[in-house]
Design goal:
Radius of gyration: 15 Å
Shape: globular
Structural class: mainly beta
Order of helices and strands: EEEEEEEEEEEEEEE
Number of strands: 15
Number of helices: 0
Distance between the termini: 29 Å
Strand content: 35-45%
CATH topology: Jelly Rolls
Number of domains: 1
């Protein structure tokens, strides 16, 4: 896929919100991506909301492979208490930024397949974190639920709505590297893609 700068609000293309929390069977959610240029990743922006009185924290990790039975972390957002779930509103959610201030992943470019992984500490009871997804028309990525044993449950019909920001090799300014190219087939966001 050729790189392009999207001027539209990618988050307006959100079709659903996906329910998840850090308990069995789905401990994490994952979205694949590819980018042509080498870059240092500085932040990931996603849509988040809460269901019920969910509390806890969410952070992002960048994985450089998807191998059953293990994680392959190239970097995680600097402060795992940065994004407090209790502060989130209800669906359709709000844009949440996960910053990589210290441990920044260095993406190699050349359309390498890497992954955005969202993780959380415990969210208890019947409460959930919700993350925005779109109907899948993104060929360079895949959306998965990940168990505690790192078993991947691919959801081929969906992709996470996200922005990836960073500094391209040779540059010195943070910029939007990539935004998920979804088109919302609905007039308004809806929830319930569980």
């Amino acid at each position: 896929m050729a790189e392009e700068k999207l001027t539209e609000n990618v988050f307006a293309n959100q079709a659903f919100m996906w329910d998840w929390k850090c308990i069995a069977p789905n401990f994490y959610i994952m979205q694949g991506f590819k980018y042509a240029s080498a870059a240092t990743i500085t932040k990931v922006v996603v849509t988040m909301a809460k269901k019920g009185t969910a509390a806890g924290y969410v952070w992002a990790e960048i994985w450089d492979s998807k191998v059953a039975g293990s994680s392959h972390i190239s970097g995680n957002s600097s402060d795992q208490t940065e994004n407090d779930v209790s502060a989130y509103g209800a669906a359709p959610g709000e844009q949440v930024t996960c910053n990589f201030n210290i441990n920044r992943p260095v993406y190699p470019g050349a359309l390498a397949q890497w992954y955005i992984v969202l993780a959380s500490d415990d969210v208890v009871g019947g409460d959930y974190i919700l993350t925005g997804v779109g109907v899948n028309d993104y060929a360079d990525g895949s959306f998965s639920l990940i168990s505690g044993a790192f078993v991947y449950n691919d959801k081929a019909a969906f992709d996470m709505v996200f922005e990836l920001h960073g500094i391209v090799d040779g540059g010195d300014t943070e910029e939007l590297l990539f935004a998920s190219p979804f088109k919302n087939p609905f007039n308004t966001p809806i929830q319930g893609a569980t």
